[in-house]
Amino acid sequence: MSILAINEQLLRAIGVGVAVVRASDLQFVFHNGPFTEWFGTPEQGSTLSDVLSDLDPKELEDVKQSGLRYSVELQIKPKRRTLIFAVTVSLANGLSEQVLIVECQNITRIRELESMIDSYSTMVERNTRELEREKERVERLLLNLMPRAVYEEFKTFGVVTPQLYQQVSVVMLDFVGFTDFAAKTDPTVTLSELNDIFTAFDRIVEQFGCERIKTIGDAYLAVSGMPDPTPDHATAVAHCAVRFLRYLERRNESHPHKWQARIGLGMGAAVGSVVGIQKYVYDVFGPAVNIASRLQVFANPMNIVAPEEMKYALIDEFQVSELGCVDIKGMGEMDLINVTSGLSMPQGSRSF
């Protein structure tokens, strides 16, 4: 068998479609089985352009003139399915006449796999974005339940270690006549009123670096000095208390229901921890909380009562007057002071 015959046999055996056409008129000299299977048997006298009509005649002419390869992807639909072929046309020299070698590879499966990968990649990116949004939503939710430092500990270790804070200050507010108001008013109105007021309180608390711990019905509790120690924790909660009352006074000027509140301040030790396993709640308890809770009962409407031990921490920034000694259930006798608006109110970013 001659070398030429061996080459022809090899070309017929490979899985790549191969055709040889004369450069002068582009008529077929040879084509193998895969080429015929994909594009049909070229008729006598037909040219490469007749079989592969999407080939660019100008590019074919450039191949003949320059000898550079011409590569292109063609989509052909011989039956119902569209097939994609990578077609390369090159010039063969050294023969009695110039011929063009046409190589065709079916890359349909490759392109389908690439399309599937792109689709999966898009889906993964979309799911990742949704997970990120869900993570942010959960994070915002948890940050409403606990301070950021506590949340970071919970996120890292899965638990929050109960911690004793030796010196913190607490502000506790309770509305006057709330039970009667809630009983006589549409619940949606009551909820709207509380939501409006507590939202304003949250901004005040944030302004003075305190942490709102919880609301229980109409009661509002915030602390300063935990989880991060703050040397001026007493003045921070006092400023919050004064701003709470100032906000209510201004709100009462334009709203139909006139809210009045009693406020108690407390100072001392407190324990902070996440309570519960399935429903997480960050809570504080201890002497400072108990004092604030008990003292708000002794406050007249729209007044702030604090223990006498807070006097020297507040006297430089607030007007303080003695209320005398009272017997507090579970705590014994305690000297109390009344705290009114500051002598030098700090200027925050927003006034209430």
Summarize the structure.
The chain is of the alpha+beta class.
Helix content: 40-55%
C-alpha Rg (nearest Å): 42 Å
Multimeric organization: single chain
Averaged pLDDT: 86
Backbone shape:
rod-shaped
What is the CA–CA distance across the termini?
Answer: 103 Å
Query: Could you give a short account of the major beta sheet?
Result: 8 strands, mixed
**Secondary structure tally, helices:** 11
Q: Based on DSSP secondary structure assignment, what is the total number of beta strands?
A: 13
Structural class: alpha+beta
**Poorly predicted runs:** 347-352
Order of helices and strands: HEEHHHEEEHHEHHEEHEEHEHEE
Report the sheet-strand fraction. 25-35%
